[in-house]
Specification:
The chain is an alpha+beta fold and about 425 residues long. Helix content is about 55%, strand content about 15%. The protein is elongated and about 90 Å long.
Length: about 425
Amino acid sequence: MNLEHEINHWGTYPVDPIDAELAALEFSLDNLLARDPAYWRTSQKKDRLKRLEIIQAKQAALKLRILAASGDIAEETGAKDVSGWMLTELLVDKKIGRAEAKFAAAVSRYELVAAGLAEGVVSQDKARVITKALEAVEADPAATADDLAYAEKLLVDYATRLTADDLKNIGKRILVEVDPERFEAAEAKALQREEEHAQRRTFFQSRANGDGTVDIHARVSYAVGMRLRTLLDSLAQPRKLSAEDRGREAPYDRLLGQAFARIVETYDVDQLPRHGGHGTTVFITMDVEDLRNDLGTAALGFDGDKITAAEARRMACNADLIPVVLDTGSEILDFGRTTRLAHPVQHRALRLRDKCCQAEDCDAPAAWTEAHHLKPWSQGGRTDLANMVLLCPSDHRRIHDPNYDYERLPDGRIRFARRV
């Protein structure tokens, strides 16, 4: 295509064909944006979304071609690079502008990738994945130019059939696809180095906020992270769907946080390492009157950190805690008995009996619930089926909340009412 200015049919005013085509494109988009997709048929929406996906890839190809050839913009404007001009003129953040310029340069080096974008069969996201994978191939001392060319061909072909995330996984091991005999051993070594690096970078930090919450920041290996996320999703997703069925909003990040707390609170302490011949336990120290009443505080552990007496009682229903009960003279009255915890056989019996959370307005399945003593164990309540009921973590917390009263209905369900 001739990019020079052309003379119009009157032979007087120069016309830039690129400007004319862009103007026509802008005019068409304005017309399309004036139409309301709500009135389109489903088949029309599907067809137009597919076509727009292709158009978007072609538009990206054009923009990247221009960026790759825009070194003169920096020279003319005095900017360090084209991203500097993008910052001042287009208000594009410097980091984003540099990334786009770098991406444009990468695409210009790979003919098949550029062609796939221009044809609309490779999206911009997939092109990013492919160029990153190809740059890794180029950096591999064992890879040849033929390996690089074949890897590009394979990845562009995969891009027509896979999502960007799936393509990223293929890209990490593309050399094994190119030549398994030469690169499988190298891949195994690379994975081993990656896993060892992950272990060295693993950490856990926690910081108390002073408002009853603790911020947790951690880094673990990818495998551990994905396993944890799967566990959290398995607990949070059903609750999200259950809440939606009842017309309630349930922010998913909050549900994930509650699921994380659930995993910690219900972890089998028998699996913990033993210290000094005893299983790891948590001590809660509180006055006997506070233990019996709805008010008061308890000391968690031996560092003096405080929790409410209600929270201490709630935790005692599930965890391997030792309540160190003090009389008015701060002398130890009782170190507690682990027999207060429901036996696994009792949990199974409760699940068969109650089927779900026994709060009147809750239908959380039994698998999500915890055993609660109707007459508190601290007040002589027995760990018998007749004195226990299943409650989900939210309602279990509520039944220990001094701001709520509750009554047991004839059918065994629990009805809550906020205290006035």
